[in-house]
Design brief:
Strand content: 15-25%
Structural class: alpha/beta
Strand order of the largest sheet: 2-1-3-5-4-6
Helix content: 25-40%
Order of helices and strands: HEHEEEEHHHE
Distance between the termini: 109 Å
Largest sheet: 6 strands, mixed
Length: about 200
């Protein structure tokens, strides 16, 4: 066989061998690039942030922290944060000797709502964390649902002194989410009424 034909034959066999390699020897396909993270536009928060000031609620600090944590764990459209020094809080939380009461919201950023954590309810045997979460619920736009079961945070004192639930149920969460969806509460004024939670 002439030398030039031999080189051509070897080249053909090599090409066929490369084409017919089993898939197990082929290089793995590159992994797809991860989808870019969806982020809020620059300067826009994914949730409405409301600041609270509890400096006048001595003795309630742990209950307030737990009540705030309950709301933050169960809502995505609104978040509660302790006020920074030198800034104004939308939610003023104070301790009183009467029954708990709060402004009916939804409170807006730059607005003003009040929570009064009444020690009379504690004297009667009601749970402090449930009281704090319930009153904050009023600021977020939820009215009372009395009488009601312990599973409803907004049933308040009507659930009895044995009730310690401080977590909003699915309906309560959905109402707050709707009130703050697409930052709606930044455009909708709060009701402004004070709701007193005496039995």
């Amino acid at each position: 066989m002439p030398h030039s034909k031999w080189i051509a034959a070897v080249g053909t066999v090599a090409a066929i061998t490369v084409i017919t390699l089993p898939a197990a020897h082929a290089a793995p396909a590159p992994a797809p690039a991860p989808a870019p993270a969806t982020a809020a536009p620059a300067g826009v928060s994914a949730a409405t942030t409301l600041y609270y000031d509890d400096t006048r609620a001595r003795g309630w600090e742990a209950a307030i922290t737990a009540g705030v944590a309950s709301w933050n764990a169960n809502t995505t459209q609104v978040k509660l944060a302790k006020v920074r020094p030198g800034t104004r809080a939308e939610i003023q939380i104070v301790a009183t000797n009467g029954w708990p009461q709060a402004t009916l919201g939804p409170v807006r950023p730059g607005g003003l709502a009040r929570v009064e954590l009444g020690n009379l309810a504690v004297t009667e045997g009601h749970d402090k964390t449930r009281i704090a979460a319930h009153e904050i619920g009023h600021n977020l736009g939820l009215p009372d649902t009395k009488p009601g079961p312990c599973s409803q945070l907004m049933s308040g004192s009507s659930a009895g002194t044995s009730c310690k639930n401080a977590v909003p149920n699915a309906t309560e969460r959905a109402r707050v989410e709707a009130a703050y969806a697409n930052r709606a509460a930044t455009r909708t004024p709060a009701d402004g009424r004070m709701l007193v939670d005496a039995p």
